[in-house]
Structures are given as C-alpha cells and as structure tokens.
Design brief:
The complex is a heterodimer. By secondary structure, chain A is of the alpha+beta class. Chain A is about 20% helix and about 35% strand. In chain A, helix 1 packs across helix 2 and helix 5 runs parallel beside helix 6. In chain B, strand 7 and strand 8 form a beta hairpin. Classes of the chains: A alpha+beta, B mainly beta. At the A-B interface, strand 1, strand 2, strand 12, strand 13 and strand 19 of A face strand 1, strand 2 and strand 4 of B.
C-alpha cells in the first residue's frame, strides 16, 4: 500500500518541479480483488493495485489538473508541466479561492449524530480492518461455495460477486495542508434465480466481520422461492413496504440537490423550498461522516473537514452543504437570506468541477417507534412488499418524479401476510410525495444498492405509491 | 463483447446499435402530413427499462400534437412507454436516409467494477401505432 510518508515524499519532489503560485496534490488508489460467480460456479477472479496523483496548479484565477500513476522523477516533472501549461491557458475563474491552509481546513468539529461521545482527539473511528484487507481468494471462494450450496439445495441458480479492497485518499498542498485516509471495504451481492422468479441481497462494510454471505444467500433464496409463479395485478396506487435497498436507490436521487451550487445554478428541487415543510414530520436526515455505520474520508476535495449537517428536521429542509467557493458565492447572492445557515461544510468535490458539492454520508434519523418489516407486513391489509428497485431515472427535476422498476422479489400482502409473488411494476413517483406519505419506518441500517451511494436508511411503509405499469415477469 | 480498457474483462453490451433508414424516400414533414392523429416526441431526457428489457419508458423535452397531417400545438412533459417487442412490431413507417441522425447519450455504465463506454445510436424519425403515452405524470 502507498503510505502517507511515501506520498509526502512524492509531494516534496513535485514541489521542487512546480512554478505555479499554488499547488495541490490528491493521492488516490489501493488494492482491490473480486470473485465473480454465475450459474452456480466461480467464473472470474480479478485483482488490481494502482495508485495515482492528481496535480492541480493555480496561477491567480487560472487552474487545471493533470494526473499520473508513475512516481519516478521524469513522470512527476511531466505531470507538473502538463498541469501548469493547462492552467496557463484557462480562462480566469472569478470564483476560484486560494487553496486552504491547514488551519482553515480543520473547520469546526461536529459530534456524531447517534448521540455517542466524541471519539478521542475528534478523530473518526478506524475504517481500516486487517481482516478485510487480508481476505484471500480462497476465503472468498469458500464463501461463494456456501452461497452456491444454498442455491443448489433449493434448486436455484446463484450469481453475484464477493469483493474486498483497501484504499487510500490523501491531499497535500503548498500551504502546508496534509490529510490522509485509508479504509477497507468488503462487498457481497447475490442474485438467486428460479424458473420464473428471483431474489437478491447486497451488503457492504469496511469490516468483513459484519458481512455474512451465507445469511444473505438464505434471504435471497427465500425470496426467489416465495415469489415463484408470480401473479399479475393491475397497476395503481398501493400501500408499499420498501426494504432499505429500495428506499436507498429512490431517495438517492434527491441528495445532489442539497448543495449550495445546485441552488445558485437553479437546478435544485429545493429552490424556494428551504425552510418550508416539504416532507412528513417523521423525516429527519443528516449528513454525518462520523456515523459508526458510515464510511469514507473525513475531508473533502480541498482537504476541508467534513462537518455534520442536519439537512432535514421533522420534514423541514433546514440546510445545504457547501464547498468553500459555493459558500462564498452564496453569501453574496440574492438567495442568501432564504437558504438557512451558509458556511463551508467540507463537502466540495475536487476542483475544477461543475457540481460543486453534495452530501456523501446520508443518515436517516431513527423513528420514535421503529417497526420491523415483519411488523409493517402484519399491519397491512392490502399492499406490496418491494425488495429492490431498478433503472431509476429522473422524470421531473422540480417535483422530483422518478421512474423505475421493481425487481428480484415483489410480493402481494393481504390480511397482514405475504400471499404470493407479483409481476414487476414500473413506478412514477414524486420523492417529495413519497417522503410525505411514510406511515412506518424501521431502524435505519447501512444499505447498499445499485443507483446510490451507501447510506444509513430505514425500510419504509408508504401509502399511495404510484405504480403505473406492469411488465411481463 | 466490449471492454473499457486493457485491464478490464470484456462484457456483453451493445454500444453502437442503429436502425437502418427506410428505403423509400420519406421526410419527417411528409410523415407528419400522412398522419391523421399522433404525437411527435422530440429529444429524450429520461429513459428506463426493466432488467429483461420488456417494459420501457421514455420522457422527452418537447412534444407536438398532430391532427389531420399538421402540428397543431406544443405538448408539455410528454412521455411514452410500452413493451419492447409490441412497440417495434407496431412501427409502420420510417423516414429515409436524409433524416437519419447518429444520436446517442454520451456514455453508458455497466458491470462490476463499472465500465463506462461511449455510445452512439443512429435512427430516422419513425411512426408507431397504438403506443401508450403520458404514464410518467399519471
């Protein structure tokens, strides 16, 4: 693994070659490995190790980047030269700020959102686990063997991946800022296929000890078996119970609008809605990199400390997240008086970029009276249980209507019980209305999907969810 | 089979699928003029399809109502949807080469780890019968 000391030494060599007014270097990369299986057998194993440095040079308001994954002197000279020659020919950016000092980047510390005491030294708990980084192909194969055995026992066909990685992220700049983060990640995704049905589960954690491929396989297999011979019922508005993966992939489409630049660009559905009650009173949402179930680095693309930000409080949109530049622009704009507290929150993407910033560590606040999915089913006279959603796309950016399909385990609920599997539906649903019609929630859990970053989200029971069509399976 | 780069495994995907133009000369204006009642959809802005590629839905930026061979008014937030095989079997006219354009979203992501590739899809305007419209806002 590339270490912090090695990166610091590479940065010191880059500085020697640099002539720009300001210099910033982002280090990235790591080791990753993946075992893929289909048709009840492993058919691919891959492993990769790669590190790179992205060099940003600035001359006044002109800035640009160049990137290399070669750290010899000649390559570093070349990447510095490329970065500087690109920067010199850019149009000046009037919003470009000087790079932050180490002191500025420290920001304000925000305590964790789960009520726990602040970690000693205000540092994140480690997200690097030796057991995860040391996972071998043989251990992954053993786990896949357990998954396949579960599939074969029930006459199902299993497919999926089991992956692990160890990654670094670092930033050094010419004003003395130096930040470093390393973490591990393990991920399991399992699809169980039957003749006319399927089931699915996916999980991701920095700590392999928190994942159980066999347990996930049992759930996926149960879903495939129970949804066999699916019935077709008419589309319409139904009470639904969305499992956490389905909630995640739907609500994920909302959060890129919670950035200051999205408001300044007038591309956010929160334009003229901040401070108003947009969702149900049972919805409170934070961005909190320090949450024990979250992952990722505690600093942003300029090295600024990520603050904990309450985005939504009891249905009212309270605040946005900001990069340094977006906060400075917002304070000078006509929107400043109607967007809540404006300050740098440490959510900026590496400069230059077009998006500005976004919450990257979304956490839903636990409900006062959490219900399990089983309790939600038992309380439902007629409704539909949804395992996951698929191919979600935005239909209307201001009403935040998204469309997509159900997939891999959609069930009819009648009289408080699962009755049968259903053919999959297309939905066209406003996320604003969806989060205003939540009747019950589970305790939020770290959740993985296919469309959104991992978040800490609950399962939800929602009334009048809008299914518009049904497909052939 | 396509791979994003030398260090990625090829996966099954279709990055450059086009539909041939009609052989009989036919302009878009002639197609409109030969249509009694229809909606002309222009400029896709959202797309979604199920994992077996049956049910699809497209939202477009603008639509025009056609009546008696003429565009009579602009339509807001138009969408169309259907089942792939039924949709393509309902096509009864397609414009010729002069109307053919190489369209395509900038890129498409697939696979684990994800592989992103450029895409391009050529087509001429075409007419489809009995297509469901308006589901996106229903």
């Amino acid at each position: 693994m590339l270490t912090r000391d090695q990166a610091a030494e590479i940065f010191s060599r880059i500085r020697k070659y640099a002539a720009a007014d300001e210099l910033e270097c982002l280090f990235y990369g790591g080791r990753s490995a993946l075992t893929r299986f289909a048709n009840n057998t492993i058919h691919q194993n891959m492993a990769e190790e790669n590190y790179g440095v992205s060099v940003r040079s600035a001359f006044g308001g002109r800035t640009a980047r160049a990137t290399t994954n070669k750290f010899d002197d000649a390559s570093l000279q070349e990447v510095v030269s490329a970065s500087e020659s690109l920067a010199r020919v850019q149009e000046p950016d009037p919003d470009l700020l000087p790079i932050p000092s180490s002191e500025e980047a420290q920001g304000r510390y925000s305590p964790p959102s789960n009520g726990a005491a602040a970690p000693e030294g205000n540092k994140l708990p480690s997200r690097h686990f030796e057991e995860t980084s040391n996972l071998t192909p043989a251990q992954r194969a053993d786990a896949v063997g357990q998954v396949v055995a579960i599939a074969q026992k029930r006459n199902l066909t299993a497919a999926g991946i089991f992956a692990n990685s160890e990654t670094i992220e670092g930033i050094f700049n010419s004003r003395g800022l130096s930040r470093w983060h390393r973490q591990t990640s393990a991920e399991v995704s399992i699809t169980m296929l039957a003749g006319d049905s399927s089931g699915w589960q996916k999980a991701n954690s920095p700590d392999i000890a928190k994942l159980s491929p066999a347990h996930l396989a049992q759930i996926a297999a149960e879903k495939a078996a129970k949804s066999a011979a699916p019935r077709e019922i008419a589309p319409g508005k139904y009470t639904v119970i969305l499992e956490p993966a389905a909630v995640l992939d739907a609500v994920g489409f909302a959060f890129y609008d919670f950035g200051g630049l999205a408001i300044l660009d007038q591309r956010s559905f929160l334009n003229n809605r901040i401070g108003s009650k947009l969702f149900g009173e049972n919805i409170s949402i934070w961005d909190d990199v320090s949450h024990p179930q979250q992952s990722g680095s505690p600093f942003d693309g300029e090295g600024m400390r990520r603050s904990r930000v309450q985005l939504v409080e009891q249905g009212v949109v309270k605040r946005l997240v900001y990069s340094r530049a977006s906060a400075a622009r917002m304070k000078q704009s006509g929107h400043a008086a109607k967007v809540g507290l404006v300050e740098t929150t440490g959510h900026g993407f590496p400069i230059p970029n077009e998006i500005g910033e976004a919450p990257m560590n979304v956490v839903f606040e636990p409900p006062q009276e959490p219900k399990t999915v089983e309790q939600m089913i038992a309380s439902t006279e007629r409704g539909i249980l949804v395992t996951r959603l698929w191919y979600i796309r935005e239909v209307d950016p201001y009403e935040k209507i998204v469309t997509g399909m159900t997939r891999d385990g959609t069930f009819l609920i009648e009289g408080g019980k699962l009755v049968c599997g259903l053919r999959n539906f297309r939905f066209n649903q406003s996320l604003i209305e969806m989060l205003s019609q939540v009747e019950a929630m589970s305790t939020p859990v770290r959740t993985s999907g296919e469309e959104s970053l991992d978040m800490v989200v609950p399962a939800m029971k929602i009334r009048d969810f809008n299914f518009t069509e049904v497909t052939k399976f | 089979m396509r791979a994003e780069s030398w260090n990625r495994l090829p996966i099954i995907r279709m990055t450059n699928i086009s539909i041939l133009p009609g052989e009989t000369p036919l302009s878009l204006e002639q197609l409109i003029a030969s249509t009694d009642q229809a909606i002309l959809f222009q400029t896709n802005r959202s797309w979604s399809i199920d994992d077996k590629r049956y049910n699809f839905q497209f939202g477009t930026e603008i639509g025009w109502e056609i009546k008696n061979g003429k565009r009579i008014r602009m339509l807001k937030n138009p969408s169309y949807s259907g089942i792939t095989t039924e949709f393509w079997n309902s096509m009864d006219a397609i414009c010729s080469r002069d109307e053919w354009t190489l369209w395509g979203t900038p890129n498409c992501g697939k696979g684990q780890p994800q592989q992103v590739m450029g895409t391009g899809h050529g087509a001429s305007p075409a007419r489809f019968r009995r297509v469901k419209v308006g589901s996106a806002y229903s």
